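Now for a specimen:

…
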Amino acid sequence: LLELNPLMSYLLDLGPSYFYSSKISLIFLASLVLYKRHSHKLARIVTYASVALYGCIVCLHLFHLGNLS
């Protein structure tokens, strides 16, 4: 896999489980911050849409992580 982010590339070199778990954790934390900080209706809509999209990405990562074992 090719990863342009140096931190994520390092984690990928350590192993796919480090890479995927870090990505999932960062997505969760970013979603939590967005949810806690929203005050405008459009911001809430974008936050919910982002969480739904990233939820799908998390499912894909979990699927790929399960196939690596």
Remarks:
- The longest helix spans residues 41-68.
